[in-house]
Q: What sequence folds into this?
């Protein structure tokens, strides 16, 4: 299910890479997701939002999740690091990456 995010869609960052992560510095879950993507040679873009309270609030309100990372695959919100790992393990991540950009 695609989540419409004003701050996300207006910036068109979801078209920067197949996977976009919104992160904050020092977050172990963010670091684990980035490490996983790098080690599997999956193209991604990470955007640190730690100092942008408005963006953090907009993302939390739009996704229903107050935690980071917030991970989008092909422009669709999938959740956090745990959801990324589960999608990769089940083969769903490859399927999502083969879909057109939202």
A:
């Amino acid at each position: 299910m695609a989540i419409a995010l004003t701050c996300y869609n207006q910036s068109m960052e979801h078209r920067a890479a197949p996977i976009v992560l919104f992160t904050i510095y020092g977050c172990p879950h963010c670091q684990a997701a980035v490490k996983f993507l790098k080690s599997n040679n999956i193209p991604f873009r990470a955007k640190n939002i730690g100092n942008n309270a408005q963006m953090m609030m907009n993302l939390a309100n739009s996704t229903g999740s107050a935690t980071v990372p917030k991970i989008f695959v092909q422009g669709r919100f999938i959740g956090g690091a745990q959801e990324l790992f589960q999608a990769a393990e089940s083969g769903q991540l490859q399927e999502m990456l083969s879909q057109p950009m939202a």
Summary: The chain has one domain: 6-65+75-98. The longest strand covers residues 19-23. Residues 28-39 form the longest helix (12 residues).
